[in-house]
Amino acid sequence: MDARGFKFAELLTKAIYRIKQLEEKKISAIQDEIGIALGKSGGASVEHWRKGYFPTKWSELEVLARILVSRGKVDRDWLEQFLELGQHPNLEKVVIELFPKESFFEEEIPAVDFNLPTDELPEPGNLPPGSQMPLSRNRFFVGRKLDLLHLARHFQQGHMAAVGQSNIAAAIGLGGVGKTQLASEFVHLYGQFFHGGVYWLSFEDAEAVPSKIAACGGVSGMNLSPIFWELPLEEQVKLVRKAWQSPIPRLLVFDNCEDEELLAEWLPTSGGCRILVTTRRGDWDPILGVQTISLGALYRHESIDLLASLSKANDRDALDKIAAELGDLPLALHMAGRYLYLRRRSITPANYLAELQDPKLLDHESLQQSTDSSRLSPTGHVQHVARTFALSYDQLDLKKETDELAHALLVRVAHFAPGEPIWYQLLIKTVEPIVGYEQLEIKADQGFSRLIDLGLIEYEEKDDIFRMHRLVAAFVRQFAEDAVQETLASVESIVFEETARINKAGYPVPLLSWNLHLRAVTESAVDRRSGRSAWLLNSVGEHFRQMGDYQGASEYFRKALDIWLETAGPKHEHTAEGYLNVGKILRDLGQLDHAESFLKKALDLRLEILGDQHPQTAEAYNEYGRLLFIQQDFDGAQSYLQQAVDVSMAAVGKFHASTADYLNNLGMIVCSAGECEKSLLFLQNALEIRQKIFGKNNPRTALSLNNIGHALSLMNRFNESKAYHQEAYGIRKDILGEYHLDTAESLNNLGYLYVNLDETIKALEVLSFARKICEVVFSGPHPNLVVTLTNIGHAEYKLGRVNNSESTLNQALDMGLELFSNEHPLNKRIIKRMKEFNFKV
Questions:
Q1: Does 710 score more than 80 pLDDT?
Q2: Alpha-carbon gap, residue 274 to 257, rounded angstroms
């Protein structure tokens, strides 16, 4: 490790330890969280960098620095050293953004007669004489206050005396997002402060740019010469450009400038000009010094206000839903609002909403106004949503390798949830067959850069996030329908494989941020009723089950079973899989009678198709035995679980995840039957296997620790039990997060122990948090919440809060009776406790 690497490692380690102190987390958990935020599977890269190596991409270095500043509260000096050691190319920009009150250039900016209001927006004012501004102020303009103030602050800081500051700001975003509208609003609010005037130039036609620049110097502009119009065009342009290089502050607006070379050709090389560029292009060469302001969709309340103003409609609920269908895109909202106003006597917002809820919504007449209507446009642009996107899409030349790959990525993105952060690492796997593994990430990055340049993908540099607007997604699905359909199998297969891999690892957290994408891809799969779509539904259902979303899991498991019954028939092992998973989730939901029906069908089918010595039959023995256990048939449950263990041992061996599961479950049944010493042998065996297979920090290992703790508590070995439960809780909190049912279960068990250890105040504290978790995760009754309320009632009674205790136990019983019959073990336990406390049952 050289000196630079040593110092970099030292700074990184210092920041991580600061996070450890502030958040009271383990180093490994912090590194894993940072790794996941960087799009990696865990913290291995962070650990690698702590050994003195550097991130290979400066974008990774920047995201890493931002995370450490946010979470570690490190100071500016730390950030400067960290980025300098990592050789970040835009060090000053990042530091100023994160520490704006300590700008590198504050002391270098002299007092000049140029002051823009930067705390509040000014009132509109007249533009200075000679200004060239073709657009009137749009009285329906809404929102964008922060973006306008950001522009003002940038231009205020960008005085030429502040060496190194950029005078160029670019409003970037997809077509129809309101870039030109933002520039126009800025001109009408702030143009009055640019004493040298405002000059609005369309860069859409590169060949016409010289004549537009020359127009700025005539009598109606800067009036540079009494014989200005007698001069050759080349001389006129030279005079204008010379004037632009004077210290007088002027605002130049380069509207629709998409070409880096075109921008570089016409930029003033010095002087007091500030340049505002509107562009779809997301990436600009750093040498140009362009500061980008990424425009996204409007906030929902702004969208509703815009629709209401244009349409004069009062049904804000319907307008809210219309805005959602249109993805809050200003162009679409403007067109929809005008349409509603023009058709106000024949169509209501509710009727219009129903018409928009169509896969081909871009064909609706409200979004397809003719080119003649551009004269009514506040920007003078054509009012046609699909054509706006087509201007970008049509620039993809599929004969060029980069454009071909960009198109391949584009049609794959269209399968995922629009408007949500792109599932980047998974997405690029879908193009691996085209690109090959060796150059996958490099070429995928080139493809995404091309899409960003065209404005078809939105990119937020601050968080390194890619998104596709819902109307762009609708455009791609409609206008590239064949390509979208051709990529369907690839996308679904990769999603299934990745979800199944993570499910098998027992570490579902990486899928949390992908839930909306999982739903989007699987919902699309339902209609095709294929075996592949059934397996995808099944895999996603298992993910939701692991995350404690039993209702969501039930929905997907049932859809998978329906497809298997239809495609494979009632006598097939896939159908048996469907019966088993529906039965398991019904059991988890406490619907025991229905669960028994499905689990019995699964077991009978597997015995008939696979025989009694198959691993899948062992699984069915296990799940049916667990149901009998809940129904308090301990003998029957123990018999089925013993069969599951025996078959698994013979079929796959001792050190297998399934064998560990069955041993664990058998141990719990034996313990509940009163043979806790014997149960510890099974439970310790299961723990040994899980630690060997999954390691110590894994949800399944935590489950074993939890269950050993439970057995020890039943033996009144409370201090030993507490140690196991605390370790299980630590693992679950780090891996699954605080708001997970398994984490709540550990808190519940700890609360029960604290009551028995006469630490009742502490018990009530942890039980109250367990209750909060259950109520956040589930909006209605749930068995875990029933158990938690029962334990809270017990703790309150021990503290002498008798009325609170009775009320809480009655609440637990009401919920239990809503879920189960009087004879269910949970309800029997509550009734027994209430009778012990002399409460009325």
A1: yes
A2: 15
Instruction: Answer whether 771's CB lies under 8 Å from 785's CB.
Output: yes
Which H/E stretch holds residue 198? strand 198-202
Torsion, Cα of 795, 801, 802, 804 (10° steps): -80
Tell me the backbone φ, ψ of residue 547, rounded to 5 degrees. Answer: -85, 0
- Total count of residues recorded for the chain: 841
Query: Do the Cβ atoms of 312 and 341 come closer than 8 Å?
Result: yes
| Helices 349-356/330-342 angle, 10° precision | 130
The answer to whether 580 touches 596, Cβ cutoff 8 Å, is: no
The DSSP secondary-structure symbol of 421 reads: P
Contact 623, 615 (CB under 8 A): no
User: How confident is the model at residue 720, as a pLDDT?
Assistant: 94
R_g of the chain computed on alpha carbons: 32
Contact 621, 646 (CB under 8 A): no
- Return the bridge partners of 466, or none: 459
Judged on CB neighbours under 10 Å (0-12, 13-18, 19+), 684 is middle
Which SS3 state, helix, strand or coil, does residue 738 take? Answer: coil
H-type alpha helices, 86-178: 91-98, 145-157
**CA 155 from centroid of its chain's CA atoms:** 33
Does position 684 have pLDDT exceeding 90, yes or no? Answer: yes
Per-residue model confidence (pLDDT) at position 104: 38
Q: At 814, is the secondary structure helix, strand, or coil?
A: helix
Residue type, 488: L
Both structure tokens of 97:
């953004």
465 secondary structure, DSSP code: E
pLDDT of residue 108: 38
Contacts of 663 (CB under 8 A, 6+ apart): 645, 682, 683, 685, 686, 689
pTM: 0.55
Q: So what's the pLDDT on residue 778?
A: 66
Report the C-alpha dihedral over residues 212, 214, 217, 218, rounded to 10 degrees: -90
- Scanning the structure block, which residue is given the tokens 């537009």? 212
121-174: pLDDT as tens digits: 999 988 998 898 888 888 888 888 888 888 888 888 763 333 333 478 777 767
Phi-psi region of 298 (alpha: psi -120 to 50; beta: other; left: phi over 0): beta
What residue ranges in 378-534 does DSSP mark as E strands?
Answer: 458-460, 465-467
Query: Are the beta carbons of 434 and 401 closer than 8 angstroms?
Result: no
Residue 295: the pLDDT is 78
Residue 103 has pLDDT above 60, yes or no: no
What's the average model confidence in pLDDT over 729-750? 89
Contact 695, 656 (CB under 8 A): no
pLDDT of amino acid 706: 95
Residue 656's contacts (CB-CB under 8 Å, 6 or more residues apart) are 648, 689, 693
Q: In 272-330, where do the E strands start and end?
A: 273-279, 290-294
Q: Does the pLDDT at position 4 exceed 80? A: no
